[in-house]
Amino acid sequence: MSFYELVYDAVQKIPKGRVASYGQIAMLCGNPRASRAVGGALHQNPLPGVIPCHRVVNRNGRLAPEFAFGGPEEQKRLLEAEGVEVGDDHCVNMARYAWYGEP
Fold first, then answer.
1. Against a cut of 0.90, is the pTM above it?
2. Is residue 91 annotated as part of the catalytic site, yes or no?
């Protein structure tokens, strides 16, 4: 399985109402130093309605400034529709919403 396929598989496991960081996804994929590669994979998400890339944020909970599927306002809308509170600063409270699941 390619790294991108591992990323897509891990991201599909993030439950609604939760988020994970790029670094968490990289770690779940066996390469903890590949958080930028996770971002690259998500930017090329082949199935945006199936692979919930909107549930991936940076380690501080900040939304993607270049969210590939509609910008940060769309990412915020998608997260809020799932019950995730997003602050006016486009940040999610990681202590409250982070998912630390297994691959």
1. yes
2. no
